[in-house]
Each structure stands twice: as C-alpha cells, then as structure tokens.
Amino acid sequence: MMRMKKKKNETLKITWIMTAVYWVVGLLCMFWGKIDHAFANQVKDINNVYALTLLIILILPLLFSILLSIKVKPPRLICNSLVAVIYLLIVIAAGMAYNFQNIIGYFFPIILFVLMAFLAIFYALLKTIRNKKNGKYYFVDGKDKEECNSFWDAYKQYYAMGLTSGIIEGLLTVVFN
Fold this sequence. Notes:
- This protein has 177 residues and is mainly alpha-helical.
- 73% of the residues lie in helices and 7% in strands.
- It has a three-stranded antiparallel sheet.
- The termini are far apart.
- 20% of the residues are buried.
C-alpha cells in the first residue's frame, strides 16, 4: 500500500514538472514570436489564432495535472515519457506556428520526430543485436541489465529509449545552435 502511494506521489510530481516545462516552453515561444515581430515592426500583423491555439495546447496538461491531483486515475498510456516528449513537440510546434504566423511552423517538429523515429529504428536494432549473449537478449541501461523474453521485448525498450533521448537531444541542438 505504501509503495503504491509513493509511486502515485512520484507520478504526480513528474506530471506537475512536465506541466511547468510545457508552460515555460510555450511562454518562451510566445515571447520569442512577439519579440521577433516587434523587431521587424510587424506587431500589428500578429494573428491571435496562433496564440489561442498555443494557450489551448498549454491548458490541456494543466487540466490533466489538476485531475491527477484530485485523485482521478489517469490511463497508463498518458503517464509515459515518450508521450511527454511528443506533447513537448506539439507545444514547440504551436509556438513555432505562432512565431512564423503560418501553419508551416507545425511541420518542423514533426519532421524532427520522423527523423528521430527512423534513427531510433537503427539504434534499437544495433543495441539489441549487440546485447545478445548466450541466445538471450538483454536491455542494458547504464549499470542496469535486464533479461528480456525475446528479441522484440528488448527491441521495444531500446526503441523507446532511443526515440525519447534522440528527440530531446535534437531539440537541445536546435535550440542552442
């Protein structure tokens, strides 16, 4: 019982942290777009539909966090790191659309996601084959080594890890370069 309560508290904490990250990224995108347009003397040309879309996208995780805080049990799929990263891409896409004042802004993070999905396929295949010993497949994450039932079990874990870390690294590269 105590273990389950601790896990719920951990999930709640991570959910609120990710909600804060979404809001920080969303607001930074909004200010970045406003500043870009202010320097270009195009403030009067800003279409507020993009800002409204970004705010709606930011309100959804806030509502989810509030529901989780009042003890509504979320589906297990939603509390997944890959889902959190994909939603972060959606927030960035909405922010880029606001900045560009064009629907084209939605395509940049989608292209990044597709590229990382293809790279993750090869990464997972390489790691799965590399960590086969004595006819058994292992998932190795740092110092942890977990035996898997089949090739596909190990492959799935490596794929999710490769996709998540690839997207995060790709985003950091785009932001800081």
